[in-house]
Amino acid sequence: MFNEKEYAKRYYAKNKERIKGRSKIWRRNNPDQAKQAVNAWRKNNIERKRELNRLWAKNNPAAYKEWVKKNPYRIKANNVRYYSENSISHIIIQRVYEDNIKKYGTLTCYLCLKPILFGKDCIEHKIPYSRGGTNNYENLGVAHRSCNSKKHNKTHIEVLNNAKISR
Known about the structure:
DNA Binding (I), subunit A, mainly alpha, 6% strand
C-alpha cells in the first residue's frame, strides 16, 4: 500500500540539497510571500517556535546573551505578551504603569523606591503567582528586574522585612 508521508520523507532525504536550493531561489524572488509564509507558520506553531527558541538559547548561551543586549525592547514585549496570555490584559498593565508614574512622578520600583531606567522594568506580582497570588490590578506592581530577581517567590512584605532590597 502506498504511504504518502513515507514517500515524501524518502523523497526529501534523497533530494534535500536540490529542494533547499530551489526554496532559497524562490524566497529571494518572492520576499513578500516568503515573509507571509513564515508569519503564518509562526502563528500556527506558537508552542513549537517557543520550544525552538528555548533550545537555541540553551545551546548558544553566548549568542543569546548578546541577542538580549541588542534587543531589550523584544524582551520587554515578550514579558508583556506572556502576561497577556496569562489573563492580564494590556489595559491592566497600562494602568499599573500609569498609576506608578502618577504616584511617584516617574517610573519607580515599588520595592526599592528608586527610579527605573527604560527597559530595566518588569511587571511584578506582590504576592507571587506560585503562592496563590492573582493577576488582579491590586496584586501587580512595577519593579526593577534586579529587585524582582532578589524578591524571587517571596511576598513584598517578606522582602521588605528581610531588607534584602535597600531603600
